[in-house]
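User: quick one, sequence for these tokens?
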């Protein structure tokens, strides 16, 4: 006859160890993925953007962009308050009328839009970025493929919070369709549908590689070869950095001004295909 001996003391110890494992993870502040994806309620934003491409020489140009981005709050819905200010600059190289590259830096000022927060109101964010822009004509329509890679250092609003490093991998596809003309020329209205996927990577990115998916439609007007105005609506959603199972959403009104000054004293200074926006 076999003798089975079960010590209730060791069974109790094993039970306590197994029960403590998830509790320890929660005590360390680790986020737990939900069983199903959760979408937050969308927020509204308004962006005012300027895009400058200033010719320096036959092949070089200076990229000078400034963005003012507002986000809704409980006390000021829809338009809200200032959320970010961008200063993006770079030196670009024109390989041909259909391809250029850029390399530069970004200073982004992040404002705390949480009205109940007692943390800092403003923190800077630093980026290095490089971009590869392809422009391909298709009948009267222009198609654009943009690859942009950003290396960013960001921090939270908590006092003495440390900077974290992440890479952003961005691909944008855009069409530019003239409405009242056969080509993109002065006094032409155009519509520009656009889709951009933004991925991210880094030690802090555990289960949230998709930072943003942006879907935009823009209506623009070409004033001169050097000046264009546009406005549009963008829907976007992406994963929360701290928890990949939670998605944020937003609706954004965007207003743009594109300017391309050229002070060189030569004829035919601008390329026939306007692709630098």
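Assistant:
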């Amino acid at each position: 006859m076999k003798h089975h001996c079960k010590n209730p003391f060791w069974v109790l110890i094993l039970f306590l160890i197994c029960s403590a494992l998830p509790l320890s993870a929660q005590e360390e502040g680790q986020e737990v993925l939900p069983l199903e994806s959760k979408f937050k309620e969308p927020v509204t934003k308004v962006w005012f953007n300027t895009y400058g491409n200033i010719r320096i020489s036959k092949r070089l140009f200076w990229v000078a962009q400034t963005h003012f981005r507002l986000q809704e709050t409980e006390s000021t819905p829809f338009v809200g308050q200032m959320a970010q200010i961008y200063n993006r600059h770079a030196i670009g190289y024109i390989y041909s009328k259909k391809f250029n590259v850029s390399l530069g830096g970004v200073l982004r000022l992040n404002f705390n839009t949480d009205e109940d927060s007692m943390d800092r109101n403003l923190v800077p964010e630093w980026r290095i970025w490089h971009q590869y822009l392809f422009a391909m004509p298709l009948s009267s329509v222009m198609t654009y493929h943009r690859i942009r890679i950003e290396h960013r250092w960001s921090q939270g609003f908590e006092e003495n919070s440390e900077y974290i490093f992440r890479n952003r991998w961005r691909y944008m596809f855009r069409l530019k369709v003239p409405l009242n003309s056969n080509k993109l020329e002065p006094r032409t209205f155009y519509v520009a549908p656009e889709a951009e996927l933004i991925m991210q990577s880094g030690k802090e990115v555990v289960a949230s590689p998709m930072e943003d998916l942006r879907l935009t439609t823009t209506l623009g007007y070409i004033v001169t070869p050097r000046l264009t105005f546009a406005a549009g609506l963008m829907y976007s959603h992406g994963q929360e950095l701290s928890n990949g199972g939670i998605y944020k959403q937003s609706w954004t009104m965007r207003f743009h001004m594109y300017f391309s000054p050229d002070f060189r004293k030569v004829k035919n200074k601008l390329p026939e295909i306007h692709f630098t926006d």
